[in-house]
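dumping this here before i forget
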Amino acid sequence: MTNGLGPENQLTEDQLKFGYWFVTHKPQLKRALVIFLIVINSLIWLFVLYRLTRLYLIDYNRHRAMVRQASQNLINPEVLEARRPRSLDLKQAVVLDAGSGRYDLSAVIFNPNREWYATFSYLFRGEAVTTPLRQSYILPGQEKIISELAFGSEARLRGVRLEIKEIEWKRVDRHQVADTTQFVADRTNFVVSDAVFTPPDPAVKDGPSKATFSITNATAYGYWAMDVTVVLYRGSAIAGVNRVQLAGLESGERRQAEVTWFEKLPNITKVEVRPEVNIFDESVYMAPRREDRE
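structure:
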């Protein structure tokens, strides 16, 4: 009796032996495969742990050191320092006796920065004396006189100095202002003329001294208010300081003004008039008149 298989479909003796061996050793083969996969998986995890260990313990610290070194090379401290605004230059405070237990305090300050302006608070401090905190501003490259007038004190003021507080620097926006020097010059072109000091009238007892002057707004802008500081000199020394505010000074307008002193003054040799407007404050500008717009 035949099995119905052709010669090509009959198994050889070797194939039968392999089949028998495979069937009888199948559990062992399965266990060997599992062990092999476990070994491969363990090797993979060992490699991962090795890479993580190298990354966090060796390469990470090396990378941080490289980044730190690169940042130090890219950021030049000298360049950063050059781009920061320099401090205001403060001159020695001047104390003038205004009579009746009152004093006029003043100090010259200078902004050495051509691209920075600032707003700040200030006060004068002396031996056991401090003036109220005031607010002011300074334009790029500007020299101005800071003052506290008619400050009352029973004791004579000694060791007085100007202190700047809470200064806020602002860099001129180069997208809006191409040339800062020209921008400032165009908006502060105030022509001072006829500045004259007149001493007291000898015929009037305790009569005041006065300084008269004229200011022409030669800019293309009108200003709601202009602060004017008037400084009297005896030689090169400041002998008197006073202030006045001019309201509503239009473009092209000429305005006369005067300030007075009631205390006794020395011989005055020069009158200096300093008009001041914070041109970076949009609220100071008057709207153009209709005829100017037309």
